[in-house]
Amino acid sequence: MSTLFIIGNGFDKAHGLKTSYWDFRNYLEKHAEEFLVQMENMYSIAPFERLDKRFKKNKEIQNCRDNAIYGMLWKSFEHGLGEVNEVEMLDFSKSIVDDLYLDGGPVGIKDTMDDYWEEQYRFIERLNEYVCKWIRQVRLFKTVPMKSVFVDNFKDYFFTFNYTSVLERIYHVPCNHILHIHGGLSPYCDERPVLGHGNVEKIEKYRAKAESAAEEYDEGGESIYNAIANYYERTRKNTSRCMAFKYNFFRQLTGVDHVEVIGHSFGEVDIPYFTYLKYCVSENANWIFYYHSSEDYDAAKKAVKELELDIRNYELLHSDCFWK
Question: For the chain, how far is it from start to end, CA to CA, in angstroms?
Fold first, then answer.
């Protein structure tokens, strides 16, 4: 029998790697500032340059602003991607429609509006491209093993949410025992990194609104609602697609009688993966969920409840226990 390790970003951070969402923002600020400004504008975060020049030199004000931005979007970045400021988007969109208003109503402007939104929101398609570039510049040459049982481990399996090649390069775990479910770097992973939210309801909501507007011959409204749905679609992480064609890995898990989850924040967008894995491993498998903070502990309890695990088959332990 073997163990399945489900690994989140806390694992890489424990190895000293700068792989948090805030580190990604720092990368964008340095290498793709225009993209960062465009994206944060969608979440009502104004560029620092718009502030009074006196504030720019004040470290305390800068730190307060960084903390606010972190809380607004980057603390739970993937979840935040699915919570764009819709009111502001709608108000702005309707003002554009008003500017294009024709005699007898905004009739015949759908193509013009569609072209406008395509140009306005196309920037977000580069998100995963920047994720890939960011991960490539994360260096591992100073990274050392911290978990001895992982080294040259040919017996257990690793389901990782991380993009880095720590398992392959630092621990020498064979590639066929690892699944980078969100992609990673070649030559260790064939799939490019992917990042996004799981808020399908928002997409369905605005598609329905667009259909209703079309039925009422409201071309402006149809275009607006489709534009918002398209934005959500482009920032969505399709968990079903991520798991498709991974049969060879999942079929190896039937003999797994022990599961350990480390470095994970148990975000809602990733719960479908846990649910699927539950049915891949042994029905009576024992689970250990390691948490780092009280917030992680609460999220882990919620995840356990959603997974409907028998109380006799799981433990919640502090992450320090994992590294002993």
Answer: 23
